[in-house]
Predict the structure.
Amino acid sequence: EFRRVLFRSASYGLQFVGYPYVRGGNSLTNGTDCSGFVNLIHAHFGISTPRQSGALAGAGRAVSDADKLPG
C-alpha cells in the first residue's frame, strides 16, 4: 500500500512541474514553495503533513537503510 501511494503521489506531483515557485504560495497552479508543494500533494491523498519546512522536517520518522528506496 505504501509503495502504491508513493508512486501515485509522485505521478500526481509531476503534473505540476513547471508551475511557478512562490515563497509562501499555496497553489499548485498559481505557485507554491517546496514545503507547500509537499503539503498539497500529500493532502490530495489524505495525508496530513505540516505546511512549514521546519515542522515538516521534524514530523518524519527514521527509516532504516534496508527500507530506503531510491529517489
Q: What stands out?
A: Helices lie at 2-14, 34-44, 53-59. Residues 2-14 form the longest helix (13 residues). The beta strands are 26-27, 31-32. The mean pLDDT is 90.
